[in-house]
Predict the structure of Regulator of G-protein signaling 7.
Amino acid sequence: MNLRNQLDALCGRLLESAQLRTHKYFRVAVPHALTGQSLVALVGEKGHADDEVEATHLATLLLQYGYLFPVIEPQSQFQVRDDGTLYRLQRPYFWPSHAAQTDNVEYAIYLNKRLLRNEQRHGLEEDEIEAYNKLAELLAHMWGFITAQAELQLKQQKEKKKADKVVYDSEERAFWRIRRPGTANCLEQHVQKVEKRLRKATAAGYRSIVERLKFSIKTKPWLKAPKASGDMVKWVENLHDHDPLLASSQQISNPWITDETTLWTLNTDAVEVPTERRVKRWGISVQELVKDPIGRQVLETFLESEFSSENIRFWIAIQDLKYSTNAEIEPKAERIYEEFLGPGAPCQVNVDSRTLERTMDLLNAGNPRRHAFTHAEEHVFTLMSKDSYPRFVKSAIYKGVLTAAQQQGSKRVGWRNFIFNMGATKKPLGSRQHKTSRDDSHHQQLPKQLSSDSLPVAKTHHNR
């Protein structure tokens, strides 16, 4: 349907802009026509084609679908020629989109009308004679009505001007040439069937095939396909248990099937204890980890233990910069540069000189700085994914959060407590419990919710 609407719109623009005039073909006057050169140029202009080849191809599609037709040479029905060949645009009444189906009665009336006219100029061809005989046998019970309709239409056509009669006769012939009963609508045919008729065997075509085969032998795509298929299967298997449509929870009903929204509540950004499935998803890839707000907080806690928390904070600041309003771009970009990249920055990130130079070029280009830190962002994220993330998955911090998620059904202990109380053992009854001092709580407090607006993150103290 989309293709049909586009072709109708294009052909409508052609009818409005085409300068149709009478052309001389030897000693014959051909009214309301245009040459192939003019047609290709007009299709390229109204169809917004990039070059002449694309314009010729688009005009050929219109010819094949029946929106235009050759006037003198019906055999050139499948290819538009960029020369002096004369073409005529079809009126909307004969467009394939407006005449979705054709029946035997209409075709029989058309053939009878052709026979009632001068047989030398309007005689039937061999295939039309065969179709006429079949229709006369099939529609014998209503042949009188068909003959009467043919005579009435022929009488009305004789009242027209000579030029109009010539144009209408050619349009009607072109329509029935490709829309005979029993043939599929050209707009409903698969595009490969149309292209197969348009394609001709040429030396250039064979050279293109040879070059494509040589490239295939060089790159060996059949060796890469099994690896890509294996990676796809592995990726689907890893995410199978985390898809609520494929693997439903044993304790919580699937919100995609029922009206229960408990699963959404347990997976909100500010939940105290994340679910076990949610924490296990962090171990699939670093992308899954940084997508989760709680996962980013846990990762920053781990990076603080390695004295490299500026990496995740720099990455989060850039994500916030990408989706900020235009008025906020410049101050946030300056803040990120002074905080992480500038000389003497308090949270200097580790980027190489080449990446820093490319980032500075983008910052000094004068264009909007929304994507000026792209190269530095890729460098820092690659550093985290290859260096810090493998250690994070094996760290006691991640295992502590996973333990908190596994025990949330029986023990309401937040993941923050598990991070800072790992390895703590229960004391015997009657023993004196150690009270946490203000200094101890200073070391145990986690950073705030991460966002670029709160950078650098300041640590707060607990009140007694």
